[in-house]
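Explain this protein:
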Amino acid sequence: MTQSAQIPAAPRALSILRGAQRQYTEHPSEPGQGVRVAPFLDAADGATHMSIALVELAPGAQVRGHRHPFEESFFVLEGEPLVAIADRRYALRPNDFGLVPFAAGHAWSNPSERPARLLRVHTPQPRPIGKRGSAGVFDAPETAVPVDGTPVDELDPTKPFAGHFDQSDMAPPGSISMPGYHGANVQNVQIRMMVDDLLGARHHAMFIVQFRPNPGVVAKTAKEHFHPFEEIYYLLSGKTQSYCDGEAELAEAGDLIFAPVGASHGFAPVGTDPLCWIEVQAPLPPASDGFTFHSDWDGQTNLG
């Protein structure tokens, strides 16, 4: 008796979550006053390894000391909030980023007269522990709400967990070179690593990616590929045409693109403004053979 051939599962698709559709509400993931959260990506959207949100701190807002059984990272989009991480306090500004290690106490405040807004990453995804809670938030009474802090200084070895992105940090455009892949399938790219294993992350990486478009030409600067980890792209500026198994869709600043495990994706910047996004990968890519590009296998004989 012969077994019938199994029908393979349909490839997982790329999805674009529109920034204009985000809604801020109070949320248990940020226990305090004057803070609101706009969820961007979680299990309901098909994510397995990460949770992404925008967090808004009103003037005078406070988030009490708490800890998580997962990592947290952040990128400051607007404003000048304060954050306490373990026994360090930082006075943040736009384009600052940071890592809250697994189980580290942390707290926030916004003493300025302007709102503060940041992109927040949780990985692995929060889940109830011992049937308690849903956001993975546990009290950290030893971590006080910060009333002051020092500016981020990446050259100070006594001030870990935080850094600052500046355009001058970018190397000249070239081929991609990063953990998991080194090669010419992604061209004209600039990358600035932020949160990674060098900063102490164990479950994810966050970095800045920038492409400079060629006006009037729509060309795939990132050839279509897939990999065994999840990835998001939060667009800071510019527009991109995304590709997934023959389908194309446009994304622009404020949108978030989600590539699940195994989802095919490639990109082409469009327009005249530089395409710049925050990219997050979880889990961390393998040291090699982490990316599979369709074009690399075009010349191989397929047997099934």
